[in-house]
Amino acid sequence: MIPVNVNPSTLEKxxxxxxxxxxxxxxxxxxxxxPQVHPADEVRLIAWARAFIYVWAVAWFLLISADPDLWGHIxxxxxxxxxxxxxxxxxxxxxxxxYRWINHEWLMEVIFYGIYQVADSTGLILAKLLLxxxxxxxLSGLHFxxxxxxxxxxxxxxxxxxxxxxxxxxxxxLATFLFLTWMVVAxxxxxxGNQRVLRWLPLLFLGWVNSHGGVVAGLGIFGxxxxxxxxxxxxxxxxxxxxxxxxxxxxxxxxLVNPYGYRLWVFFYESLGQERIITEWxxxxxWSADFIQYKILAxxxxxSWFLPTKKRIWEIxxxxxxxxxxxxxxRHTVLAVILLLxxxxxxxxxxxxxxxxxxxxxxxxxxxHWAAQAVMLTFMIFFLINRGQQFADNxxxxxxxxxxxxxxxxxxxxxxxxxxxxxVPFDWGEYWLWKFPDSKISIDGRFRTAYPQxxxxxxxxxxxxxxxxxxxxxxxxxxxxxxxxxxxAHRTMEHQPGWVKIYQGPISKLFVxxxxxxxxxxxxxxxxxxxxxGRTPPYAFPG
Length: 543
Hints:
By secondary structure, the protein is mainly alpha-helical. Mean pLDDT is 89; it is low at 1-27 and 30-37.
């Protein structure tokens, strides 16, 4: 083979490949840049969502109608402060005078009296509103601590607030709503890993047992949770169930610290199982639109059983029991909703993550964010102004409606200086106590805490016009009878021997005894000395 000398500079270069498409000298088009998500934008969105819910809560919780027992709560609180002690017997009734009185709401009544002394009924409304907003704030915080889903938050709270609002009258049971919320938040934090939070529960139950009888529900719920967790972790050696059990034992001791000691719990045991013919203790009607928000939340709970999410056994058991009691007694619907919200937030917050408005909102420009926030702010301002105007129409006071309470009959009694032992409808007893502190009444909203069952049944029979109800007139020193137009006694008293009608108002009638011993008002009526003031009573509390 003959070697060949090759000059590198003369080497043939490989031919260039022919392009398949014409090339351009221009720069390639820029790649699409995904919008940058700023944490501050997400925080602002959540803040606006919470602000909207708080305004929604103001609209629903700003109820200004007077509760039938509000007069009594303030009056009893004043008496406790002046005497420096809690009542042991009933001094306000002529049918149960001297009967034992278990006042499990004494602390809230003292608080109500203090607020009323400082800020009148306006202060009571504002205190109730702040308490309700605090509850919504705590439950909202619990939601966003576990899921950031804004869509689920808005949907659940837009349903929950109307479902809760009917129970938010100015009454001591507001304490149960507050203490239950504190307990729920504490227990969820405990199960999320914060074990130190349990140290506050005995103190919580100490305040609860002196504020409202709803402490029975609270202790029962906590006890059920402890039982389930102890059984579940019996053989696992976990520390958490033992810590729960020890805390529950401390809470059981704390609830004995009250003015009546163990006798309070004997009373609860004897009375809570008995029938109550009171509206708020009636069942939720199933086949109507009433309580529709509560029914939707209950349906969401049932649907959650089929979601592929983790569930705690105690949550399923406790919520099932709470919802059943909510359907059984209307007053328990609020408690069920408070218990239900954290669970539904967790279940649907993760399941419906793709529907979260937060994801789509972040892709929009800041200009859109500003416009949306301006619209939201404008709406909320006008909404609050509208609600405030309705509040201003009654001079920022609790509203005492003449179509509900016997304000005209009370005005007639005061104008003529009448008093005595008065048989009254159940819902008007504490209003009458306030108006006529020197008189005594036949029944009032304290119910079994201050009246024996015989007297409760007798007053009910009288209101219903049954023959056995006449014993209220013959066996007790009844001087006057006040009747309500929705009760049968309103008609039967017209024909009752030994009694005569001396006044008739829009919703009530007043009868006076003419048989032995006759009331002095009878002679004044015959002489034509009784006057009708003919004026419209004030609508502002106390009426």
